[in-house]
Amino acid sequence: MNMETLTTIKEVRKAVAAARAGGRRIGFVPTMGDLHAGHIALVTAARQETDFVVVSVFVNPTQFGPGEDYERYARNLPKDAEMCMAAGVDVIFAPSVGEMYPDENLTWVDVAKLSEPLCGLSRPKHFRGVATVCAKLFNIVQPDTAFFGRKDAQQTIVIKRMVSDLNMPLKIIVCPTIRETDGLAMSSRNRYLGPQERQDATIIYAALKKCAASLADGLCDSQTLERDIRNTIGKTPSAQIEYIGIMDVQTLRPAGRISGETLVAVAVRIGSTRLIDNLIFDPSSGNLSL
Ligand code: AMP
Residues 97, 65, 149, 138: is their CA dihedral positive or negative? Predict the structure, then answer.
């Protein structure tokens, strides 16, 4: 069947209902568009796990703060549609802001505690916007499974908790971070980087890789790990560290010594572009994802 690009909630509900009536399991990949290989990896996972794949393309205004890049965020639906078609997507849902928020929004999903540290510090209403739009999209698409990228680790933790706390009937699958060949995590925001900044941005991956090696060597003092990351990134003058968080992956509380599964997350400004990246380490199994 050909891919459809739909813009109304009514059309999406109809297309999904027909697929479900045909016995197909529904996979869902929420995005803000300007798609790259990281997004397409989620589509590929969705195709493996489910039978009917819906991708949403929606730059959600409620997750941007004042002065952030909402207006500037790249919008290129024709190119996104081409990539989705090639990747075997069944439906793109590309609603207008008016379709998603026809009135002043009065109902918010606020995942307390998990939304507060890390990105929540500089983006206080960000995860409220993310959780709310995901709840709305889950209600519209009603997927069996939704796919998120580990690159936005705190987002996956917030969304999983929302799904669990609100008994939403879907499964969340988290897929690995897809990187450029020099290690920089793919992101729609990488296009803001000038050539020198793009080069400088590789320091983020370099610092995390070094941290991964220390963890694999058994270093478990988070202060030392944090200091090493700070020193590595600090060597690049255009890089300003916003945070380095070494946190328990369940609670997002700072981990003193690394004993359980741990998230090492960083946010760094390269010039005026804010980039995030992370690794997750489980000392009991030695598993490390970066
Ligand atoms: P965005 O369009 O940036 O909101 O991202 C939509 C989804 O794609 C989210 O689940 C992101 O975590 C995921 N994603 C973005 N970049 C990457 C990447 N480099 N690797 C894996 N997933 C990604």
Answer: negative
**Residue of 126, 145, 152, 175 to test ligand 1 pocket, by largest number of atoms within 8 Å of CB:** 152
Residue nearest to atom 13 of ligand 1 (CA): 149
Ligand 1 contacts CB of residue 185 (under 6 A):
yes
Phi, psi values for residue 193, rounded to 5°: -80, 135
pLDDT tens readout for residues 24-74 = 999 999 999 999 999 999 999 999 999 999 999 999 999 999 999 999 999
Cα of 43 to ligand 1 centre, how many Å?
Answer: 11
Any atom of ligand 1 within 6 Å of the Cβ of 184? no
Give me ligand 1 centre to Cα 142, in Å: 20
C-alpha span between 155 and 174 (Å, rounded): 10
pLDDT in tens, 87-117: 999 999 999 999 999 999 999 999 999 999 9
Closest C-alpha to 137, from 223, 26, 45: 26
Site to substitute for ligand 1 among 29, 31, 40, most atoms within 8 A of C-beta:
31
Residues with a catalytic annotation lie at 39
**Residue showing tokens 């568009």:** 33
DSSP β-bridge partners for residue 13: none
Phi, psi (degrees; rounded to nearest 5) at 195:
-55, -45
Query: What pTM did the predictor assign?
Result: 0.98
